[in-house]
Amino acid sequence: MEVFRGSFTQQEPIPEEGIAAALAVLRHGRLHRYNTAPGEIAQTALLEEDFARLVGAKYCLAVASGGYAMATALRAVGVGHDDAVLSNGFTLAPVPGAIAAVGARPVFVEVTQELTIDLEDLEAKIATSGARVLLLSHMRGHICDMDRLMAICDAGGVMVVEDCAHTMGARFRGVPSGRHGRIGCYSTQTYKHANSGEGGFLVSDDAGAMARAILLSGSYMLYARHRAAPPPEAFGSLRFEIPNISGRMDNLRAAILRPQLATLDDRVGRWETLYRRLEAELAGTPGLTLIPRHADEHFVGSSFQFLLQDWQPLRTRSVIARCAARGVELKWFGAADPVAFTSRHDHWRYAGTQPLPRTDRVLAGLIDMRLPLTFTPDDAGLIGRIVKAEVSAVFQGAEEVPAAVPLGD
Ligand SMILES: *Cc1c(COP(=O)(O)O)cnc(C)c1O
Q: pTM surpassing 0.85?
C-alpha cells in the first residue's frame, strides 16, 4: 500500500537573493521603513513600487498582515461602527475578523458549488442589508465571474474590496485579481503565494482612499517617502483627521519579498502543474465531485478542494482518517468544531446567526488540502491515487465504517 511521506505545511526556502538582501538590512540595522540614510530608498518603498507594477496599480501600501490590509481598506473607504458589510459565507476567519475590527457587522452571502460567491444571493442581500461595501473573498483561489459581480455591485451602489490572500498572481479575463474592485488586499504570510512570515499589501487607483490607508498604517508625516503613493496634495487636510493605527511593513520583510515577487509567475505555473496532476488523478472517482473552474479564470493552484456531496458525516470522517493513515492530510469544512485554520460562518458567533442553507450544504461535503511547492508532480500523483482509493473504498462500502473514527488532527 502506497504511503505519502511529504509535509503539507512545508514551504520552499527563501531564495538566496532574498537571504542576501535580508542580511544587508540586518547589517546596517535600518529595519524601520522610515529609517533611511541620506539618499537611500527603503526596501519597503521599493517593494511597493514592484508590487504596484506587477498588478498594474497606481498605488500600493505594504503592511503588517493581510488581515490588517483588509481592516485598513474598510476604514479607508469609510466603513464605520455598526455598518453592514457584505462578505462570502465561505471564507477564513480573518475576513469577518477585519469587518469586526472596524466595529462593523458582517452580512454573509451564500456560496455556490463552484465555491464562489452566489451572485443571485448577493443581489438580494444588497437590496435587504443596506450595505455599501462588499469584502469579496476569493476563497481558496476560486474567482467568480468578476464582470457580472462588478455590474451587480455598481448597479447597487456597492463598493468592492477584494481579499486576494489566495489569488496573488491570478487573473480573470486578463485582469489581475485585486484590480476589479476599489482596493485589493493581499497577504504575504508563510502559507500564501509569497512568504515573509507575516505581511500584506493594499493596491488601488483611488488617491483619497490610499492617502487615508497610508496615514492609518502609521506614516506619521513621512508619507512623502513612499513612492507608489498619491502626491503630497492628496494628504492635505487628511493628515489632521486620520488616526494612526500602526501596522507598517518593515525593511527586513520587504527585502525577503522582493526577489519572490520577481518569480511569482514561475511559481503560479508550478502550482498549476501540481493542481492539474491531482485533478486528473481524481477524475472519475465515484462519490467525489471535482470543482469546475471558470474558463476565463487564470487561477493559482496552491490548494485543492473537492466535494463529498451529501455524504454521511461518519463516512467523510472515515475517508479523512484513512487518508491520514497514509500520510495525506485533508481538512474538512463540515466538522462540528473549528480545527486549526479551518472554521465556518456558524463558528464566528460575534457575527450572529445567519441562515445560509446552500452554503451549509456545500461546506458539509467540502474537503480541502494544501499543495505546497515542495511537492513534486509525482507527489501530486501519489496523493491523488491515495485519495481516490480511499474515497472509492468508503463510497462503495468495501470497508466497514467503524462506529467512531477520530479526526486526523
Ligand atoms: C490568510 C488569509 C487572509 C489574511 O491573513 P493574514 O494571516 O492576516 O495575513 C485573508 N483572507 C484569507 C481567506 C486568508 O486565508
A: yes
Mutate to test the pocket of ligand 1, among 9, 70, 74, 95 (most ligand atoms within 8 A of CB): 95
Angle formed by the axes of helices 313-325 and 377-395, nearest 10°: 140
Q: Tell me the per-residue pLDDT of 310-320, one tens digit each, with 9 for 90 and over.
A: 999 999 999 99
Q: Report yes or no: 143 and 125 within 8 Å, Cβ to Cβ.
A: no
Which tens digits make up the pLDDT trace of 318-371? 999 999 999 999 999 998 889 888 899 999 999 999 999 999 999 999 999 999
| Ranges of residues in the chain whose predicted pLDDT is under 70 | 398-409
Residue that the C-alpha cell 469577518 belongs to:
96
Q: What is the rounded distance in angstroms from the CA atom of residue 262 to the CA atom of residue 218?
A: 27
Encode burial over 374-400: b for 16+ CB neighbours within 10 A, e otherwise.
ebeeebbbbbbbbbbbbbbebbeeeee
Backbone dihedral region of 130: left (phi > 0), alpha (psi from -120 to 50 degrees) or beta?
left
Residue 174 C-alpha cell reads as 486578463
**pLDDT computed for residue 330 by the predictor:** 97
> How would you classify the pairing of strands 289-290 and 200-204?
unpaired
**pLDDT averaged over the chain?**
96
C-alpha cell at 131: 450595505
Rounded to the nearest angstrom, the distance between the alpha carbon of 161 and the centre of ligand 1 is: 14
